[in-house]
Specification:
Strand 2 and strand 3 form a beta hairpin. The strands form two sheets. The chain has a three-stranded antiparallel sheet. A three-stranded mixed sheet has the order 5-4-6, with no helix packed on it. The longest helix is centred in the first third of the chain and has 13 residues. By secondary structure, it is α+β, with helices and mostly antiparallel strands. It is built from seven helices and six strands. It has two domains: 88 residues, Winged helix-like DNA-binding domain superfamily/Winged helix DNA-binding domain (Arc Repressor Mutant, subunit A, Orthogonal Bundle); 63 residues, Ferric-uptake regulator, C-terminal dimerisarion domain (Dna Ligase, domain 1), CATH 3.30.1490.
Length: 152
Amino acid sequence: MAHEPQRRALARYLEEHNLKHTRQRELILDAFLDVQGHITSDDLYQRIRETEPQIGYTTVYRTMKLLCEAGLAAERHFDEGSTRYEIAHDHHDHLVCTRCGTIVEFECEMIEKTQEEIAKRYGFQILRHRHELYGLCEKCQGVLKRPPSELA
């Protein structure tokens, strides 16, 4: 199985916290891990319903919260207001298109180093941060550059 390490991590977390290990939680974990990028619990629920119609929205929502607590998922809040989830991994930042909602992850050593230098200069200890840049992706820039006659 492709998701065995994450399944074992979830099983350990459930056992340590005296929680039930259920088939539904495993199905939700697998569906989440198959997603590329960021997803809302509603979108994940819709995907799961296609093959597992007996799983309810509340189960998906609560399981995503549990996956965050277990360190398998990370919760993100972008400007559009909805909560999105991504697979928990090393720190990274985001570019967010305000028109179509595309989210691009990136890492930049220079930004990280500059943040540390700024914090040091002001005697500040950084505990966590998030860096999000909002604008238009290439596709949406192209749409805006077209003449109005081509947009119809």
